[in-house]
Amino acid sequence: MAPPLVHLKASFGAFVVACCFLYSAQVDRLPLSPAAHVNFAVTAAGPRDVVADLLVNLTTAQKVGQLLQVDIRKLFDGGDDWNNGGSPKLNKARVAEYAKLGIGSFFNTPFDGRTQVQAPTAANWRAILHDIHTIYAEHHAVPFVYGIDTIHGANYIQDATLFPQPLAAASSFNVDLVYRMGQVAAKDTLAAGIPWVFSPVLGIAAQPKWSRNYETFGEDPHTVSAFGVALIQGLQANNRTAACMKHFIGYSNPTSGNDRADSVISDFELVNYYAPSFLAAVHQGRVKSAMETYSSVNGEPVIASHKLLVELLRNDMGFHGLLVSDDDEVYRLVSEHHAADSDVDAIFTVYNHTSVDMNMLPGLSDVHNMTLSLIQQGQISEKRLDDSNQSRFVPVTAVGSAADQRDAKAAADESIILLENAPKLPVDAVSPKFTLPIEDPQARVFVTGPLADSKAFLCGGWSVFWQGTDNSTLIPHGVSVRDALNHTFANVRYAEGVDTTGHVIGNRTADLALAASSTYTIVVVGEASYTEKNGDIPDLHLPLGQRKYIKQLTAIPSTNVIVVVVAGRPRLLGGAHKKAAAVLVSFLPCEQGGQAIADVISGRVNPSAKLPLTYPQASGNIHLPYFHRVNSECREGFQDCAMEWTFGAGLSYTSFEYSNVTLSDTKVRSNGTLTLDVTVTNTGLRAGKEVVFVFISQKVRHGAVPEVKLLKHFTKVSLQPQEATTVRFTLSAADWSYYRPQIGRGFHSVSEPGLFHAIVKHDTDCGRHPALCKAFHVDA
Asked: Membrane-crossing residues (predicted)?
């Protein structure tokens, strides 16, 4: 038997129950859950004393129960009905049974969208959690902690503000907006009496086909790290909410592109590309909990991996918070991974080989008895339970304020990416005018496409329901693209034209005639809502019927076609957009997205978003992020592989000029610093925002083939017409170093001497733009 783990002493850190309930004012005339009134000890010494007192008074069976997290739907009879008198039908006898067993946590939502007309309100949530906690108190049970997925706002609570999905939020390259997104999400979730949120997703979007790309902050390790820290700090700013970084680790790069499939990732890539966002979450974000992943890495299920969950997460990263399994993942060792003979074998493996604290379960079944039996047989140490057992909890009140929705609108405004904008014909060589913005309020506009009249599909999965919804009335705020355009232009006509699967809707001949008689045709294409396995696709191309419709529209010479792509991943367009006058992309801007898209089209908002990932052009090159190795190029001569749009691409209605790029020195010691200055000038006629990127490239690297370049710094500046500003970046050893691939022996960086380049702007070629590419040497 493996020795008991000793590094889990501080699990769930500051979230320790202070043993007494402090009741405060009622909200909406409903009492808050007792869990919403538990004080949290936040001192270094206090929590351990409280936990020690709790553990002394728990039986071994109750200690086992404390480490089980059960789907709350198991507490209800008669289905998932929140509409029965305003409350679900709680099985109080079953709650009492769970209380006696000491079940320590519940998760999920007790409704699945089959019978509901709306998500439960915060008052609904508090009422039911109050009832459960009351039964727990009657049996003198330790209060349970409740956890829930809060991906882009409190997505399971009626009237809560829903922000753009993380991938769309990352397109803003505005960390302040994401910090505020975290604050609002925490406030709205606490209003329901829920203190623990399963967010953020910190995987890098390395596999474009993957169905959960939109839950990430993009493909770049630095970008994901920066936004992950911002979201965690926003979520935890109230000192009453615990964020949960997930999914540790490698989940975001399934080799087949299918959700939960095996990922093949070298140790070098794991520690240099996939680990930094988690490392930043631990040390900069001070995240309080973590969730492991569904998948396997290099054939080893993460749920059973000592290397990843002990050596990398606990030892190398120094993470001491609570680690929960993903849903039913312990038992997937038997059913899916085929890496355990039985559920008992799976439980034994996880407790003795990993550092998982809490086992997330769809139902209790015999898990409690099996775990208790292993302890009684001496196959699991009781000290292992004590090391993992800690307690938690929290409160607050109202959701969905106008201020919150303004924050969501600001995030949506900065998430809409303008990627193509053709000059109007005839082209004025001196002062060309472009298709967008459409500044004539009397313009004849035809709006069409499967997402033109759907708020629901602008939000995607994790919106009201797990898989999202197709019912836009369930999305509490905002308007569709169609409605927003109707309020913006006087002459708007609409036809759906095609559905998300590509099937023709209505009369195609009539639709094309509407386009021909309109000055502008705005076609909004993309995906229906999905997440996880339900979003698996065999091909990254946008459905053929949607692409055909775009081609038919762009073949009409009398209309200017504006293609708007709204999807959770970069769906290939197959050249259908090549004759379009303009192209906009947004990765699920959600409830404020319809208005944001209309405001960008009309010019009320000057677009400032940039692609947070590479947008592929061909299916053969979809698995090639911008930071690929220098020997992973295409064609003879190792030229760049053709992409539709590169990482960092994004246009504005004004123009920016970069000049005076200077380094403080051309040589630096391996542990030294340099400053890089760049002047950015708004040379256009509109106020605008520009994202300033700094990449580093390495000419020769002995430890591993170097990347083409890696983003190390970014900032966003706002400039009035003709205004200039000088931006300064400090470059340090972290910018020209890499981690040795030696999991289990700590993160040790290597700084090889040699030639490096600091590259300003996403599309700079050092050969063609030497003024934006500054060389420096790192000395030993």
From this structure: none
